[in-house]
Structure prediction request, 286 residues.
Amino acid sequence: MKNPFSAENRQQRLQSADQIGSVLKITSVPTYLIALTVLLLLVAFITWGFLGNVSDKVYYSGVVFPNQGTTDVSLPNKGMIRTMLVHSGDHVKQGQSVALVSVGDSYSILTSTVEGTVISTKVDNEEFEAFEPIVSVVDSIDTDINRTILIAYVDNAGQRDLQVGMNAQVWPEDEKRDEIGYVRGRVTRIDRYPVAAEVVKQTLKSDVMTQRLLETGGMMYQVQIELLPSKDNPKEYDWSFGVPEDVSMHVGTYCSVLSEVKRRSMFQYLFESVRTRFRAVQLSTE
Prediction:
């Protein structure tokens, strides 16, 4: 008995072109489906180009600082610190002894003129000039969030894009923004001339903070940011994810800052990118 599935039987069944055509059918995609697909892709591309956007961002750093600055305890004569009686972070009361100093051959006790938190001091056996701060104190009243600002420093490229009134996102530098969120802020002042390291030191009363903020070594510009209070609780900052646990932004906290300086559509972004590259090629060939 012959096998109905053998090669010989298959060849006998497909002896004419009509037979082959009845077995092999080629499926073609209708033209209108191809046109519709292309049209949908074109609509999606145009929508992406106009509605999609790219944000230019500026990243910089700053320190939470009292709005009214600090109170400096000093003397009208130059002298030397013999013994410091307080240190950064200590709470002092008005009239409390803060240092034993010598002016010429005489010794005296230096006292605080305000109640507050010490943020910087001289050290033992360090000399001081007349009216030079020996102890810097933040008044207790100024520790309220409504009396604090962020003093930040940005490089030259960043300060060109920043404008007064722009929003700022502020969070402690040692925390992750994606995890705890950020405090909403607003840029209130931008100094358009480079700041000297000595001026930063006089403002922040801290060598460590000054070195940290100016570690890039390039020209830096001072920016002041208002830290916005929560609408629900004016005694708290306006956090994007709600007030996080075990996270504080007290005076002296080193913070990271982000500001969105420009929003462009994808078409604008692509056009400007092409134009920039074209100019670069032109300059390289000249």
About this structure: The radius of gyration is 35 Å. Residues 31-51 form the longest helix (21 residues). Residues 4 and 10 are 8 Å apart (CA to CA).
